[in-house]
Fold this protein.
Amino acid sequence: MAGGWTRDGAVQDQIEDTVVDAVLAARASMPSCESEPFCAICGDDIPEGRRRAIPGVRTCVTCQSGRDRPLTSAFNRRGSKDSQLR
């Protein structure tokens, strides 16, 4: 149910257009070059399946997993002030 001067379903159309735009932008930013046969970090072979699945891949699964791991902090930023003083 739309309000004012808009037709019914106008809000849903805006949501769908936003999603489509985001998908197109993500696809445009993906590399389209040829994948490397060897990992750029450790030099191990990159499996053929990974090279076909991810165009432009430059790292093996092990090295990419290490790069994707979030950095941890020694500080407890969510805890109380007392927990940060330890």
Remarks:
- The chain has a mean pLDDT of 82.
- The two ends are 55 Å apart (CA to CA).
- Residues 60 and 66 are 10 Å apart (CA to CA).
- Helices lie at 10-29, 48-53, 61-68, 81-84.
